Automatic annotation (TrEMBL):
Keywords: Cell outer membrane, Membrane, Signal. Belongs to the SusD family. Residues 26-234 form the SusD-like N-terminal domain. Residues 389-603 form the RagB/SusD domain. The keyword Cytoplasm does not apply. This is Putative outer membrane starch-binding protein. It comes from Algibacter lectus. One of its GO terms (cellular component) is cell outer membrane. Residues 1-24 form the signal peptide. The keyword Signal applies.
Length: 604
């Protein structure tokens, strides 16, 4: 960086006083030793690694994922409190009235390109440095840095490809050297896809399956690249190619991936970077407390307050949709599994007088995903039951536990400054891979030849949560477990994957997973139309509050059907989405108006 240290008058005066032949240019072009430049940085692998840190930092920006917005666009989430009307920043996504000026759409585009620009600096300088290296140690280290940078450039482009303008976006495979180079035209979707697949393939071939040093915890691995490659081919219905990558993750012992015993370890701070995690974004509340909680440079996220109930410091910006609540509430447990029984007092409802045990209120998967008023087995904030500390008022029947700190604080306001959370975002985990592989094996519901193998994979996910397994009694890996005793075929198993297993196992997770699933299956409009015809109502629930006082939680237990009294409130979802959703307009986001306005070469 060049720094002007004297103006011309000062230079002339100094030259006269000193009676020398000094030149103006010498003073005007001195380098500030306290500032870095591209000429004084990018000298070695240490600089590359420092640059890579900025790429990780860019990728953790939650604008890249838009967790609440993308799930409001799908069939998962009601946008905040205030039924029957919602009027917050997430509502346009729920009712499909957003446009190219929506701030979230502009922010997502911007943050993904920031990730790409930072990755390109590492890639460009890494390529240059590697050409000068002669020792294998430096080459290997630089290759791993390059592979991480190309992974992030690849996944950023895959997000752009899957969510913007039918996949046609500007490609940057270089570091812009001047203002004009920032203005690139749209590339065809086929070129964008080929570009990001090449990046992910490079990452797959050059990243380690695991990182052996604890200081590398959280770095991306070849498993993450394999998962994203497999997902990309699955989205294009290339089941054979997708299956190769998924099978590698599932069967290759070098990855050391396995489902965790407790599903809650996938959502809690205590279970971060576990054996099931494949791609995870790390956050902390121990640093940068001076920044605004929503600053893009912060290392915490604000998702906990978005999902928690109001009286524990939450904004309840995203509440489970009615159909989703009911599917969770109706999940059938394997009553042959001891994990589904809890201790009880003799004489209490459902208590076996011999074993002094009773069945759980809800399945493990349900209890660790939702906070329900009548779940009497799973604590909520401060160790109290949800019904004891949360009124479930304002026609709110359930809250997501995912992304919230219910197990570690009494309220989200305990974090100072507020609106900060340390819980990592799990973008890809093994359960997702197992379910995608099951879909590949049945070729999207058209091929029965690998049905039994697909059932095994689905049942691995269900068995972890002690759920009733799929298939005929006495079959599969756990013949003694309780099965639903249904003879599945490829089509019926696909229906189960679409409307039960994937949404219930992966609700609110990943990058737009549910929306992209529904879109690629071609059922978005149909789904909204179906859900808009369903009606629900609430039943009252009497319980004890945290002080032992008897209280009534009005309309807190959701039921499907017509309410018993004509005056009862009727819950309905997706009525406006069913009318407003237009595939031509809403299957992808438009190019943001910020880019349209700034980029004169966009359509050249």
């Amino acid at each position: 960086m060049k720094k002007l240290i004297f103006n011309k008058i000062a230079v002339v005066l100094l030259c006269i006083i000193c009676s020398t032949s000094c030149s103006t240019e010498e003073f005007l072009t001195e380098t500030n030793p306290n500032e870095l430049s591209t000429g004084s940085f990018w000298k070695n692998n240490l600089d590359l690694n420092s640059g890579l840190t900025s790429v990780y930092n860019a990728f953790k920006n939650t604008n890249n994922f838009l967790i609440v917005e993308e799930n409001c666009k799908a069939d998962m989430t009601w946008p905040g409190f205030g039924r029957p009307n919602s009027n917050n920043q997430f509502s346009p996504f729920y009712i499909y009235t957003y446009n190219d000026s929506q701030s979230q759409i502009n922010n997502k585009w911007s943050s993904l390109y920031v990730t790409i620009f930072r990755a390109n600096q590492v890639i460009e300088n890494g390529t240059r440095l590697m050409a000068t290296y002669t020792d294998q140690t430096n080459i290997d280290f630089a290759t791993q840095i390059m592979a991480q940078a190309r992974f992030f450039r690849g996944i950023a482009y895959s997000y752009l490809y899957n969510t913007f303008n039918q996949g046609s976006v500007p490609i940057f495979d270089f570091v812009p050297k001047g203002e004009s180079e920032f203005y690139q035209p749209l590339s065809p979707a086929s070129e964008v896809k080929a570009f990001y697949l090449a990046d992910l393939e490079y990452a797959y071939e050059n990243l380690p399956p695991i990182w052996s040093q604890n200081v590398d915890l959280g770095r991306v691995t070849s498993a993450a690249a394999a998962a994203e490659l497999g997902r990309s081919y699955l989205y294009e219905e290339d089941y054979t190619k997708a299956s190769e990558y998924f099978n590698d993750i599932i069967t290759n012992p070098e990855y050391q991936r396995a489902l965790v015993d407790n599903i809650d370890d996938n959502f809690s701070a205590a279970g971060e970077f576990n054996s099931e995690s494949i791609l995870e974004v790390s956050y902390s509340v121990n640093f940068k407390s001076e920044l605004n909680a929503f600053d893009s440079q912060n290392v915490s996220n604000s998702l906990a307050r978005a999902f928690a109930s109001g009286n524990v410091g939450g904004y309840r910006s995203g509440i489970p949709s009615c159909w989703l609540q009911m599917e969770y509430k109706n999940e059938k447990m394997d009553l042959n599994d001891p994990r589904n029984y809890v201790p009880c007092e003799d004489g209490s409802e459902g208590c076996d007088p011999i074993t002094l045990m009773r069945p759980r209120s809800y399945s493990l998967r349900t209890s660790y995903t939702l906070a329900l008023v009548d779940d009497i087995d799973t604590p909520y904030y401060g160790g109290f039951l949800a019904g004891a500390i949360t009124p479930f008022n304002n026609k709110e029947n359930a809250y997501f536990r995912k992304y919230t700190n219910w197990a570690t604080v009494t309220t989200e306001a305990d974090f100072i400054p507020n609106s900060r959370s340390p819980i990592n975002i799990r973008l890809v985990r093994l359960a997702d891979v197992l379910l995608m592989q099951a879909e590949c094996l049945i070729k999207g519901g058209t091929d029965d030849s690998n049905l039994e193998e697909a059932l095994v994979l689905v049942n691995k996910v269900r068995y972890r949560s002690a759920l009733q397994l799929l298939g005929l009694d006495g079959t599969g890996e756990h013949p003694a477990a309780d099965h639903d005793n249904v003879a599945y075929n490829a089509q019926s198993l696909m229906e189960h994957l679409m409307y039960i297993e994937r949404p219930l196992e992966l609700s609110e997770e990943g990058h737009a997973v549910r929306f992209l699933d529904l879109r690629r299956w071609g059922v978005l409009k149909q789904r909204f139309e179906d859900l808009s015809t369903r009606t629900y109502y609430g039943m009252h629930y009497e319980t004890k509050d945290k002080d032992g006082k008897t209280v009534t939680r009005w309309n807190s237990i959701l039921q499907e059907g017509t309410p018993p009294l004509a005056t009862d409130y009727v819950y309905k979802d997706y009525e406006q989405a069913a009318v407003n959703y237009n595939e031509a307009l809403h299957a992808y986001y438009p190019i943001p108006n910020s880019e349209v306005t700034a980029n004169p070469n966009l359509n050249n």
